[in-house]
Write a structure and sequence with these properties.
This protein is an alpha/beta fold. The chain is 25% helix and 30% strand. It has 6 helices and 15 strands. The chain has helices spanning 8-14, 29-38, 48-58, 80-88, 103-114, 137-149, and strands spanning 3-6, 17-21, 41-45, 70-73, 92-95, 126-130, 158-161, 165-170, 173-178, 188-193, 198-203, 212-214, 221-225, 232-237, 241-246. A 10-stranded mixed beta sheet has the order 5-4-3-2-6-7-8-15-10-13, with helices on both faces. The protein has a 5-stranded mixed beta sheet with strand order 1-9-14-11-12, with no helix packed on it. Strand 7 and strand 8 (165-170) form a beta hairpin. The chain is globular.
């Protein structure tokens, strides 16, 4: 069985990622600026453009590059003055009016298209969508839906990041998560079955599963933790799982 490796600390340290700022107020702007400064490619998604503009205008942190490389969206929530400001600084602006997809999904589609011709994307190893996991539950679920759809538009791994967590979708098979330098004794994690019942075996967690059946209405592994004597976690699953873990900037 092939193994899918997840090593977020590698690209977080190297900066070989595309950072997409979604439309949700940012709780930890210092973390956001740090991620922005390190990113190889920067995108603001619709109202995320206004979110980023407000950070630029109010932060005391040093910002190395103010303007995003790309702005996408149907522009129903972005302040047009902010879009025009960044466009004047050289940002590429792509309107994506399709109402059958979220702005996040359409952003991934544009990144997939641009990866064929944009030199700055050649070194990108992952896509990070920064969005707080708070506010409207339907929008939270829409972001998870985009994780399901991501492989249609990009071969790169796609992560959801907030000021306190890091999450991604794991498909059927065996996965190895390199997380030793990202978590501590009090860090939490969860394995959420998103596609019906999942049979799961793990190693490296505080409470491991051995062919455990995860399913809503039965057992869901939330508020789990890490065996910090181990550098990695292994997960084997027969259905898609949402993996989520505490993360507040360790390893940057």
């Amino acid at each position: 069985m092939s193994v899918t490796s997840w090593s977020p600390s590698i690209f977080l340290k190297s900066g070989h990622y595309a950072l997409c700022v979604l439309n949700q107020p940012v709780a930890n702007s210092t973390l956001m600026v740090n991620l922005w400064n390190r990113a190889q490619y920067r995108v603001t998604v619709d109202g995320g453009t206004t979110i980023w503009s407000n950070i630029v205008n109010n932060t005391t942190e040093q910002i190395t590059v103010e303007n995003p490389d790309l702005i996408t969206g149907d522009f129903d929530s972005a302040d047009q003055a902010h879009v025009q400001h960044f466009e004047g600084l050289g940002t590429r602006v792509v309107e994506t009016p399709d109402q059958d997809q979220t702005d996040f999904t359409k952003c991934l589609e544009q990144l997939g298209i641009l990866s064929k011709c944009e030199p700055k994307l050649e070194k990108v190893e992952a896509i990070i969508a920064f969005v707080e996991t708070s506010g409207r539950l339907d929008q939270v679920m829409a972001n998870i839906q985009t994780l399901f759809l991501a492989k249609k538009y990009t071969s790169l791994p796609v992560y959801l990041m907030s000021s306190c967590s890091l999450s991604w979708m794991m498909g059927e098979g065996k996965h190895m998560i390199e997380c030793g330098d990202l978590v501590g004794e009090d860090s939490h994690c969860g394995l959420i079955p998103m596609d019906g019942k999942a049979v799961v075996t793990t190693a490296g967690l505080k409470w491991n599963l051995e062919a455990g059946q995860l399913r809503f209405g039965d057992l869901v592994s939330t508020s789990n933790g890490f065996d910090i004597s181990k550098e990695r976690v292994s997960v084997t699953t027969d259905r898609s799982l949402l993996w989520t873990m505490d993360w507040e900037g360790a390893g940057l």
